[in-house]
Amino acid sequence: MTVSARPTAAPQPAGPATHVRTALATVCISGTLEDKLDAAAAAGFDGVEIFEPDLVASSSSPAAVRSRCADLGLSIDLYQPFRDFDDVRPEVVEANLRRAERKFDVMEQLGTDLVLVCSSCIPTAVAEDDRIAEQLHRLAVRAAARGIRVAYEALAWGREVNTYERSWEVVRRADHPALGLCVDSFHILSRGSDPAGIRDIPADKLFFLQLADAPMLDMDVLQWSRHHRLFPGQGTFDLPAFLGHVLSAGYDGPLSLEVFNDVFRQSDPRRTAVDARRSLLALAEATTDRVPPAVRGTLASTALPPEPTLRGYAFAELAVDAGSAPALAATLAALGFTHSGQHRSKPVQLWRYGAATVLVNASGRPGAAVAAIGVETADPGAALRRAEALLAPAHPQPHGPAEADLSAVAAPDGTEVFFCRTGADDATSWLSDFVPTGTGTDAGDAGITHIDHVALTQPFDSFDEAALFYRGLLGLRTQHASEVAAPFGLVRNRAVSDAARTVRLCLSVSVLRRGEWGPAVTDPQHVAFATDDVLAVARAARAAGAPVLDIPDNYYDDLDARLAPPPDLLARMRELGVLLDRDADGEFLHFYTEVLGGRVFFEVVQRVAGYAGYGELNGPVRMAAHRRQRARAGDR
Amino acid sequence: MTVSARPTAAPQPAGPATHVRTALATVCISGTLEDKLDAAAAAGFDGVEIFEPDLVASSSSPAAVRSRCADLGLSIDLYQPFRDFDDVRPEVVEANLRRAERKFDVMEQLGTDLVLVCSSCIPTAVAEDDRIAEQLHRLAVRAAARGIRVAYEALAWGREVNTYERSWEVVRRADHPALGLCVDSFHILSRGSDPAGIRDIPADKLFFLQLADAPMLDMDVLQWSRHHRLFPGQGTFDLPAFLGHVLSAGYDGPLSLEVFNDVFRQSDPRRTAVDARRSLLALAEATTDRVPPAVRGTLASTALPPEPTLRGYAFAELAVDAGSAPALAATLAALGFTHSGQHRSKPVQLWRYGAATVLVNASGRPGAAVAAIGVETADPGAALRRAEALLAPAHPQPHGPAEADLSAVAAPDGTEVFFCRTGADDATSWLSDFVPTGTGTDAGDAGITHIDHVALTQPFDSFDEAALFYRGLLGLRTQHASEVAAPFGLVRNRAVSDAARTVRLCLSVSVLRRGEWGPAVTDPQHVAFATDDVLAVARAARAAGAPVLDIPDNYYDDLDARLAPPPDLLARMRELGVLLDRDADGEFLHFYTEVLGGRVFFEVVQRVAGYAGYGELNGPVRMAAHRRQRARAGDR
Q1: Strand order of the sheet with strand A477-486?
Q2: From the candidates A58, A66, A491, which should be mutated to test the interface with B, based on the most B CB atoms within 10 A?
Q3: pLDDT value at A147 more than 80
Q4: Are B139 and B130 in contact (CB under 8 A)?
Q5: Could you tell me if B331 and B602 are in contact, meaning their C-beta atoms sit under 8 angstroms apart?
Q6: Which of A502-511, B105-114, B391-400 has the lowest mean pLDDT?
Q7: Which among A575, A378, A571, A614 has a CA at the least distance from the CA of A481?
Q8: What is the pLDDT of residues B400-433, one digit of tens each?
Q9: How far A239 CA lies from chain B's nearest CA (Å)?
Q10: Domain A22-300: assigned CATH number
């Protein structure tokens, strides 16, 4: 239970080869070709697609790349892309055939036999199916003579051929055994095509499968494709259905990722490759019930322990330095928490109010941070095995002989995630590590009942990775997403939770990575506690000296104009610093504390009726108030 | 001629008020309301639009904001926005009228009399013109009773009212003196509406004008508007034509900027405000010939000294540390340059080859950088006065009594820009500061002839600012823009030049601000020299020991496949490390040196026929090669 550094080491490659082979296009990740191959192998991929510009810029000869891949245990499944082959100008077709022969030379040295040919995008693209088929047939004859096969792909923005139905029609007419199809989920789903028709394509003509997810964006499809693709499970495409169709058709090649993403292109490739492979493992699991029994057996070879059923937060752990610990403890006490336990071997205090448990770990680095969360589940061991199968970096905890064997995994932002079965009699109850202080139990009044949510500011490079991590490991689905105009730049929020809403997590990130302007920490992390009477808790907390955040009068004047709460309620909210949000389902009343120890604060929330949001609209007001607080304190 | 820090101090506000008033919406820039008002005043704006969320999050009362603005010399020209007023539900209209009265209270305390009301975007927006007009009339009656006027604006994504023609029709029918129009260039031009019709709207109904530019993007107009607006002159809208129509109609209110931009929202507001005001000064100049003579007089009150006519680069200056200077000097010598002059009072060497002049200033910080450029113009004094009128931070140069009075301005990235009249007999010739070394003149052979271009990597926050800076000061227009997939992330390029192509400048930036992965300096700056025989220069340079950058064989194999240059040419290029690009206009042959002193390198280019590009397609190959070079040298 120490503050962990942001993990960068990738887990070990999976040992025995699974039956579902996974591949990664080198274009998905950042770095030189050598960086990319190393990262793909370290993440456990079986193969790669070599993206031509990566090879062209490399000082390694194709033969050296082949040798390096062999050493790394990577097959080279595809060489790509070959663009704008078909053309109405005969002399250009001749030049393109020459160009292809030169590329076949390269492929021969690489030791790969499959090349991706995209449909033409230029004004001189051929319009007639038979004529395209004839030109592709010529290419296939040349390829076959070299022992090479051609996978033809319809780009969504192809000049003439831009649907998989049309590319299949052309391939069918060309009728050459060395010519087949590459189907790419982005090109098909971005156009709204129905992928069910893929089931009707003969398996021996499905040469290759490229997978990519994407957020639903209303923009030019080429720009959408080149900048905003995501790994499966990070976007909105129904990839289990798509993959189900392709596997049901009999495709038995690798599941290969081709994702163009502005962030992934410049992030640490070792991390991105792990994220990528995790997405395929989760996709294979989600696709199992979409395929015939025969195929199901193949997918089952990658089977994961089942998704855990969660039962709320066991605890949130704050790592603080010795200087910050008193302010944290005093604030928890003023909120009504009791210091009810002390760890047997570590400087960790256990604070409790109702079912809300906060651990204050004074062995932390300077400042304060949310270092860990514990979630309740019936079988922590199975949950941990699932997490490890999904390539989560494990953080085995050192523990004394009488202490629980408690293990955690590290989330993309370095937060540790513990799987807990609180109250169990056996050694898996983490509570047995704590000695009761005997200084009383909680007051039993109408105060704080449990942890409502934890809010974690994400590193810029891992916002989408985090969503997939929590979804895969904990089954947390995106509940809603929002974007708010904060004082120092736009902030993107994504709230995830289990189906029963017992574990809610708010992830946030700047829309653009921040520069030097603005506070060094623009959006600290926080833990939000639930109550059934936020006004009473706020009043008691203020009376007890809690540093409740002051909210400006302008906010209440605007609230009056917008939502017109009853005047006496408005007056009490104004007095206490309680904020309000309202939607069609209900209301949300909440207050914040000041930022403590540099990077953490608390929130207390009351949900009225069916309100399921997080009051994000009030976020900018809170951020400006925190900014004033910290400016007064002399922080940057 | 020292390396300057990136300037952050804004220039002083303009002294006497001009007749064309300029205003800035607080939403354009980053920070708290207090930060924004300070920045607007420091940049010399006459007034502001107060964006409601900025006020709501502020702890300053409206009366305190009024007082602060008065102290800063800023008028509050508009309070905005008031959204979703008209509604088919009578009870909502009543609530909205109450909401408006509360906002009128705020405006009274602010001391402003104009409120922006946007067309409704909700499903319950009113569809019938007469009914909208009736509701707006009710609002106008209430406003008039408080001494307030309402400026009604058609949002481009308004549910029913989304064109200025429709908003004018509604305002016309409402027929109340307290109700007029706000016209916003983005909402009108993003939809492709013809703004000429604005001329037919009575001047007394044009209550307010909001100006924004934007790049041409094929995407959802709401997202386009909220994230990608730019200041006038940074995008592709014809704003001089637009403003010409509005002024010709008789509008005499402020020119006010309302720009939502992800970068500006999180950049230093003092810099952004200067950029913003510069855009209006340049726009006023560009609009002068679009308006009737009477209005022209008003615009002339902001008249700038004329755009300079450029005649090429006078010099490029490299600032180097003592450790790097020998490598720089040796490389220039190996390229054929002669050390032909020494500064009278500073450790600056003058190197020359043909008309290419490079100053090597050994008083620089660690490493090396392009510290300054000098451009030739007939009247350096007028060019400097124009630059200062356009708010460029001046960098007066300390000089001895016998030295030229040479002044520079600082570009957004800190590069100094000198205006030079080389060869003049008077003291304005900067060359008189240099004592000839007598070590010979240039060889007079077919080597380097002049500086072809200078390439400057821009700080992330100032890419668009830089384009406007060089356009405004030097008349450099965007020649072309491109985006390349570089090994460590996407890179955006924008080449600007004068009409005669004597001063070409390449600006580049990462598409996203980079994080920690990848080399610390991913894209060093460079100076490119022109030659008529790049192969000869490359051969001589290699023979003389210049560190010419090695280009991998894979590149030449790909070049053979793609462009099929004659085999003997290809062989020589491969031997010498010369690269090739080809387009419809001609060919481009070029080679690079290694990176010297950490952040600078040289390029030698040969343009064949009408080729006007910069070989950006070869950029990723160059970047990967530089990465290998620096990895060998142990740099990060």
Answers
A1: A477-486, A489-497, A504-510, A448-457, A525-531, A600-609, A586-592, A579-583
A2: A58
A3: yes
A4: no
A5: yes
A6: B391-400
A7: A614
A8: 555 666 678 999 999 999 999 887 655 557 888 8
A9: 24
A10: 3.20.20.150
Contact state of A98 with B30 under an 8 Å Cβ cutoff:
no
**CA pair distance A64, A51, nearest whole angstrom:** 16
Domains A22-300 and A310-632 in one fold? no
Six-digit token string for A350:
């256990």
| pLDDT tier for residue B261 given thresholds of 50, 70 and 90 | very high
**Best CA proximity match to B115, nearest among B147, B161, B156, B73:** B147
Query: Of A232, A230, A243, which Cα lies nearest the Cα of A299?
Result: A243
pLDDT of B367 above 80: no
pLDDT in the model for residue A522 = 66
Judged by DSSP in three states, B314 sits in strand
B184 is in an annotated binding site: yes
DSSP assignment of B540-599, as one string? HHHHTT--BPP--HHHHHHHHHHH---HHHHHHHHHHT-EEEEETTEEEEEEEBPPBTTT
DSSP A237: S
- A vs B, Cβ pairs < 8 A, gives 194
Number of other residues whose CB lies within 10 A of the CB of residue B2:
18
Q: Where exactly are the structural domains of chain A?
A: 22-300, 310-632
Task: Compare CB distances from A512 to B27, B266, B552 and report the shortest one's residue.
Answer: B266
Our CA angle for A361, A364, A369, nearest 5°, is 80
Task: For residues A12-17, give the mean pLDDT.
Answer: 40
Nearest-angstrom CA–CA distance, B630 and B69: 52
Task: For the sheet with A310-320, list strands across it.
Answer: A394-396, A407-410, A416-420, A368-377, A310-320, A356-361, A348-353, A338-343, A434-436
Position A62 pLDDT exceeds 70: yes
- For A444, list phi and psi in degrees, rounded to 5: 70, 10
Tell me, what's the pLDDT at B121? 97
Average pLDDT along chain B: 92
Distance linking the first and last C-alpha atoms of chain A? 29
Between CA A22 and CA A29, with CA A28 as vertex, the angle to 5 degrees is 110
Residue A509 has pLDDT above 80, yes or no: yes
ipTM for the predicted complex comes to: 0.93
Cα distance between residue B374 and residue B311, in whole Å: 11
- Estimate the crossing angle of helix A164-174 against helix A129-145, to 10 degrees: 60
Name the least confident of A466-470, A592-596, B333-337, B422-426. Answer: B422-426
Tell me the chain A residues in contact with residue B52 when contact means C-beta distances shorter than 8 Å: 558
Higher pLDDT, A443 or A570: A570
Which pLDDT does position A296 carry in this prediction?
84
Q: Is residue A444 over pLDDT 90?
A: no
Residues contacting residue A147 through CB under 8 Å, at least 6 positions apart: A113
Q: Which two tokens stand for residue A169?
A: 């029609």
Please give the pLDDT value at position A15.
39
Cis, peptide link before residue A53, omega less than 30° from 0 = no
Q: How far apart are CA A187 and CA A346, in angstroms?
A: 54
Which of these CATH numbers, 3.40.50.300, 1.10.260.40, 3.10.180.10, 1.10.443.10, describes A310-632? 3.10.180.10
Q: Which of A56, A142, A516 to mutate to test the interface with B (most CBs of B within 10 A)?
A: A56
Question: Does B262 contact A105 at a Cβ distance shorter than 8 Å?
Answer: no
Whether residue B467 contacts residue B600, with contact meaning beta carbons closer than 8 Å, is answered with no
CA atoms within 13 A on the CB side of A256: 31
Q: How confident is the model at residue B635 (pLDDT cuts 50, 70, 90)?
A: low
| Residue B210 marked in a binding site | yes
* pLDDT-based confidence at residue B4 (cuts at 50, 70, 90): very low
Q: Could you tell me whether strands B310-320 and B356-361 are parallel, antiparallel, or unpaired per DSSP bridges?
A: parallel
